[in-house]
Amino acid sequence: MLKVFTFALLIIGIQSCENEPVDAYLKDSDLVGKTVVRLLIEDSQEIFRENIYATVNKKGEFKLVMRDLMQRQDSLQLFTRLFQVGTFPGGSNPSIYWNQLTNMYYSTVDSQRPGYVTGFIKMEYINKKAQVVNGDFDLLMIPMQDKQDTTNISLDPNISSFKVSGSFTDLPYQREEAYYLEAEINQEVFRNNIATLTQNDNAFIAKAVGVEDPEKSIIITLPRQGIEQGKTYDFSQAGFSAIYTSENGIEYDLGKSNGSFSGTSRITIVTLQDSSQAQGVLLETRFNLEMHPLGQGQDPLIVEFGSFRLTTGL
Known about the structure:
Number of helices: 0
Number of strands: 24
Strand content: over 45%
Structural class: mainly beta
Oligomer: single chain
């Protein structure tokens, strides 16, 4: 089995000047600046540039964890219940800080004052093609007893609340789960509840069922022979197919059989590893599809920003 990493984030912090220029590099054909995460805790600033990324789970929850803060083992977890452009109040999107010096957790949720404003996290821009996000935050951290207890009871009257603020620019994000299939279908996000990769003599078959609506499903079939890591393939080629079933049970395919295939459906093989029979095959892809209804009276569907990372070893 492939090893599944459970850390939401591995982070290395370095000090730098505030006005240091941000270089740019090309990623997935989009101009993307190098990652910069700035964090201000009271009068102490930390800047992170390398080995830092956020995660998004199958529920669509966003997490960014920063560790080893304040020259201690302090940590900050930023959290929003949705991953989309917008402003998220800290009171209903609990971010958590752990202070090694006081051995206490702090939260943006004040249960004694439910309507109290404890700040915001703002998602300003999400580049779905390059999978990076820009945003900022300004939060008040209130003492609490422990991480599981959201009744913020300070046991020591000398322990007071404090503010954290900062920004993240071109911050990479990835799925929290090790194996997944997701896409944007007619601008609505599809994330898997169950996702599998199987193989027979001729093909790899990736299948996913929607997390919010189990009636939704996607099946993508690729030939086992002739595909290579790093290459992009047109679905017009033999052995490539895709089927989508909507929440209403309507089936869509690529239209190859009835002449409606547009030629815009493509898939890129990001990773193709076959370590051993016990571990199975690891297959990671990026894809875009134009899907056509098998019956009459329905418009085509556009599938964008599709990706899956699955293994036959499960």
